[in-house]
């Protein structure tokens, strides 16, 4: 298929993706300022968008690109893209499932263990020279504990497998039961939280899961409970989480994601019973390379054939 037109790079993109796109396509960069003038001048040239979950592709941007036909998103989560607006125009959208499952499961395990075993505090205890004054307090333990997975999908199942090896008792909540898994099903997030010691959140973001983990869920998890969120900040009611931690209604939290990234509320940063990561679930060289490669493969396939390798589920039918 012969195509002409430009690929719009929506920042931020990884260096690898940014440079690889320029090597194979005519590229344009969406500026952070003077966007309207830029789009008025160049919007008619754009046939494809490359983005990550930190770059919004909303109805306004889509509307300014009359020839746009495909959006390739580096990331499995794609709530940054207005998929309904794309569907209305027959614009295809791809994402990067599967290739990041191991890295995100590894981050989740590290975060859970660091939070439950207070490893970051223990590190500070040594560095600050406090060890000579006495022993670090005893902590809880992950192995053999009850872990609830809110979102037993690709990544959730990988996390469950790793935790099974530590002798954890796994249960989960999805909207639908997963056939053939040996884990107990809970009928709601609150029911799940009430039945476990540690709750791991790994559902997609977006309006359907906004504040799915609310005060009721946090209270059900309770003063000895640990919450780990590697999904999206929007999935947890952040003010309710801060209040529960401050008031001792929740034991501790390990967080990789926040409501307004990269802004992390001062109230959260001031707490001792949290471990805070800067959205690094998939951030290894190997995995980010695989994600960039899959993003480029989707664009190359679309450029040649009009199809996508890994379309988002909403458009699997359109892309085949
Ligand atoms: P997935 O395979 O689609 O799994 C998502 C799971 O969530 C499914 O089992 C789904 O089951 C469940 N779910 C969806 N909506 C739900 C709801 N309203 N209530 C309860 N369960 C619900 O996705 P994945 O590849 O595992 O990725 C999951 C998410 O992790 C991504 O969308 C992204 O937001 C996040 N993520 C974060 C990082 C990071 O760096 N921190 C990296 C990668 C991914 P049902 O459809 O049956 O409900
Ligand atoms: C990255 C993610 O932050 O895949 C996702 O949904 O949240 C992470 O892997 C991001 O997509 C970087 O490109």
From TrEMBL:
CDD domains: HPPR. It comes from the Bacteria. PROSITE patterns: D_2_HYDROXYACID_DH_1. Belongs to the D-isomer specific 2-hydroxyacid dehydrogenase family. This is Hydroxyacid dehydrogenase. Keywords: NAD, Oxidoreductase. Residues 41-312 form the D-isomer specific 2-hydroxyacid dehydrogenase catalytic domain. The keyword NAD applies. The keyword Oxidoreductase applies. Residues 109-281 form the D-isomer specific 2-hydroxyacid dehydrogenase NAD-binding domain. It comes from Nocardioides aromaticivorans. PANTHER family: 2-HYDROXYACID DEHYDROGENASE YGL185C-RELATED (PTHR10996:SF178), 2-HYDROXYACID DEHYDROGENASE-RELATED (PTHR10996). InterPro entries: D-isomer_2-hydroxyacid_DH, D-isomer_2_OHA_DH_cat_dom, D-isomer_DH_CS1, D-isomer_DH_NAD-bd, NAD(P)-bd_dom_sf.
């Amino acid at each position: 298929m012969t195509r002409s037109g430009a690929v719009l790079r929506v920042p931020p993109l990884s260096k690898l993706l940014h440079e690889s796109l320029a090597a194979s396509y005519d590229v344009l960069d969406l500026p952070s300022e003077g966007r309207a003038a830029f789009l008025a001048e160049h919007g008619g040239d754009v046939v494809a968008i490359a983005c990550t979950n930190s770059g919004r592709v909303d109805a306004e941007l889509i509307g300014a690109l009359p020839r746009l036909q495909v959006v390739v998103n580096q990331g499995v989560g794609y709530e940054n893209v207005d998929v309904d607006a794309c569907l209305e125009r027959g614009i295809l959208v791809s994402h990067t499932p599967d290739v990041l499952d191991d890295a995100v499961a590894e981050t989740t395990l590290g975060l859970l263990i660091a939070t439950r075993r207070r490893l970051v505090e223990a590190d500070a205890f040594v560095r600050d020279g406090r060890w000579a004054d006495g022993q670090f307090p005893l902590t809880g333990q992950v192995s053999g504990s009850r872990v609830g997975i809110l979102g037993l999908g690709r990544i959730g199942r990988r996390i469950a497998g790793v935790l099974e090896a530590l002798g954890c008792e796994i249960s989960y909540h999805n909207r639908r039961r997963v056939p053939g898994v040996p884990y107990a099903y809970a009928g709601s997030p609150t029911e799940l939280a009430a039945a476990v010691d540690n709750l791991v959140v790994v559902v997609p973001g977006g309006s359907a899961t906004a504040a799915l983990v609310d005060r009721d869920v946090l209270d059900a998890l309770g003063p000895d409970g640990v919450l780990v969120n590697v999904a999206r900040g929007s999935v947890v009611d952040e003010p309710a989480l801060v209040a529960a931690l401050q008031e001792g209604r929740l034991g501790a939290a390990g967080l990789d994601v926040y409501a307004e990234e990269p802004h992390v509320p001062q109230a959260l940063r001031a707490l001792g019973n949290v471990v805070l990561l800067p959205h690094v679930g998939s951030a290894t060289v190997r995995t980010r390379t695989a994600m960039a490669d899959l993003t480029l493969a989707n664009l190359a396939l679309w450029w040649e054939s009009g199809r996508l390798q890994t379309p988002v589920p909403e458009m699997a039918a359109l892309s085949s």
